[in-house]
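ok, trying the design again with the full structure, not the truncated one.
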């Protein structure tokens, strides 16, 4: 249920509504909005009735929320959520581009790719220090050492860092360096972990589980937002289907579906969604065309030498060509891509 109050409702009236919600055994959530002050209610709804609130001071309307997820739904908040990360506004007209290798492999490797991406004007560097791999014999990441290299690279290039948390033991260490915490597909329904991470109030990139429905993704986001952390960026990264021509099936349907049902920003990871490097530019362009708020793309200075996901990693030159294409497509869907390095559009050298 959602209580709508006038924007200039006196604090005392707002507090009375919140106290009533608590007295009825539920939890109130003040939801930021431009035209109305909204108070969302979560918890067991059985005792709640519209009439409990309709006659209260400054209450304009009481609206039932029909979906299982509440706080992340458009019914609760009609305006898009905007997330400000060091001046980049995620969910706005400006596209979010996150790029970098699957994993940090060495100091030289991460410095080389960070320098190349910085030169192109990319503002967000992705790279995993803790790698959840399907096989225990695959490269598991440099762990703490990887975080140290990320901290150094951040200092050197001023890039925002996106890196994954895989368990509760490393939350503090990862938060120290990360500007966005990645919650991977394999942990999307690790509810205790996502709740813990939600409490940090850091921006979170929540990746869709490989066999999760859109509703399940939004319910996982609800766990984070119910910790009062609205800084959630959703990510479509491909789902498992019968099709085996590609690593996964990139479900771009999810983008307009999520845009309709949720106010949270959604970006696409075509790298894991497709798994084959030469198909990634096409699916990146399609992602932007269908309304995604941005992309996360694996880029490696030497894909043939990568310790993980080399086959789906773009070389810097292929990635640069893709960025130029995205700059061309963006205005068609009322978006833009500004690259920090150069005020003007990127030019092919
Ligand atoms: C990754 O981004 O490298 C990764 C492991 O992604 P996912 O969790 O989507 O598989
Ligand atoms: Mn990867």
């Amino acid at each position: 249920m959602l209580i709508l109050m006038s924007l200039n409702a006196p604090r005392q009236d707002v507090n009375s509504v919140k106290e009533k919600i608590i007295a009825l055994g539920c939890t109130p959530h003040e939801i930021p909005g431009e035209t109305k002050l909204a108070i969302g209610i979560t918890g067991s709804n059985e005792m709640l009735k519209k009439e409990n609130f309709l006659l209260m001071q400054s209450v304009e309307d009481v609206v039932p929320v029909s979906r299982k997820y509440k706080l992340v739904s458009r019914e609760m908040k009609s305006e898009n959520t905007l997330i400000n990360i060091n001046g980049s506004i995620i969910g706005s007209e400006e596209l979010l581009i996150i790029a970098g290798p699957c994993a940090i492999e060495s100091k030289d490797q991460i410095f080389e790719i960070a320098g190349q991406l910085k030169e192109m004007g990319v503002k967000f560097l992705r790279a995993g220090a803790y790698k959840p791999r399907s096989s225990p014999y695959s490269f598991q990441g440099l762990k703490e050492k990887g975080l140290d290299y990320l901290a150094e690279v951040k200092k050197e290039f001023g890039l925002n860092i996106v890196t994954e948390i895989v368990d509760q033991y490393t939350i503090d260490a990862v938060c120290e360096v990360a500007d966005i915490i990645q919650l991977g597909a394999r942990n999307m329904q690790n509810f205790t972990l996502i709740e813990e991470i939600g409490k940090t109030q850091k921006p979170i990139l929540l990746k869709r589980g490989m066999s999760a429905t859109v509703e399940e993704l939004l319910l996982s986001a609800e766990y984070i937002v119910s910790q009062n952390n609205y800084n959630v960026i959703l990510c479509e990264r491909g789902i498992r289907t019968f099709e085996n021509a590609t690593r996964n099936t990139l479900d771009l349907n999810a983008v307009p579906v999520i845009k309709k049902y949720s106010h949270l920003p959604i970006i696409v990871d075509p790298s894991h969604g497709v798994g084959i490097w030469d198909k990634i530019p096409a699916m990146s362009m399609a992602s932007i065309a269908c309304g995604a708020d941005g992309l996360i793309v694996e880029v490696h200075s030497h894909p043939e030498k990568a310790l993980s996901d080399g086959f789906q990693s773009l070389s810097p030159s292929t990635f640069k060509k893709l960025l130029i294409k995205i700059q061309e497509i963006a205005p068609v869907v009322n978006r833009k891509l500004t690259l920090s390095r150069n005020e003007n559009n990127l030019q092919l050298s």
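Keeping the full-length input from now on. The mean pLDDT is 94.
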